[in-house]
Write a structure and sequence with these properties.
about 140 residues, globular, alpha/beta
Length: about 140
């Protein structure tokens, strides 16, 4: 069981809404991911030190620090800056999407989420990273 888990890509979901985290966790585990959760940026930082994720799914609107600021902080960190971030947000404007990419995210998905598209994009990001490290 531990070996099977070790091969599964790790995704951390950062969202202050527990129901959203639980729904995404269930859906992503069914797709073969090892999933962690964090209710806010502080919990994310501690979780990343314990079990480094392969991808971070990050909400924009959260207490303490918004997702854009948190993404910029992650990207500036030499230890974690290479981890791909994908925004998941109820905010749907083109400005928000642009702000997400400007903050360093590889993609931006609006809620309600198209899970098939999200899962395909996560795998695409992971495959691109694997190809880049194999070179």
């Amino acid at each position: 069981m531990a070996e099977e888990r070790a091969r599964r890509p790790r995704v951390i979901i950062v969202d202050d809404d527990r129901d959203t985290r639980e729904m995404l966790t269930l859906a992503l585990e069914l797709e073969g991911f090892d999933v962690g959760q964090a209710a806010n940026g502080l919990r994310l930082i501690s979780a990343m030190h314990v079990d480094r994720p392969d991808v971070i799914l990050l909400d924009v609107m959260m207490s303490w620090i918004d997702g854009f600021e948190l993404c910029r902080a992650i990207k500036k960190n030499p230890t974690f800056g290479d981890i791909p971030v994908i925004f998941i947000s109820a905010r749907k404007s083109a400005e928000d999407e642009r702000a997400g990419r400007d903050a360093g995210a590889v993609d931006y998905f609006s809620k309600p989420l198209d899970m098939d598209r999200l899962v395909a994009r996560i795998w695409e990001v992971l495959e691109a990273r694997a190809g880049a490290t194999a070179v």
